[in-house]
Amino acid sequence: NLAVVEKFFFYRSSNTISVVQARGVVIMTLARLKIPIMEFPPMQIKLAIAGSGRAEKDDVLNGVMRELNLINPPRPDDAADALAIALTGWFQQ
Question: pTM value?
Answer without folding.
Answer: 0.89
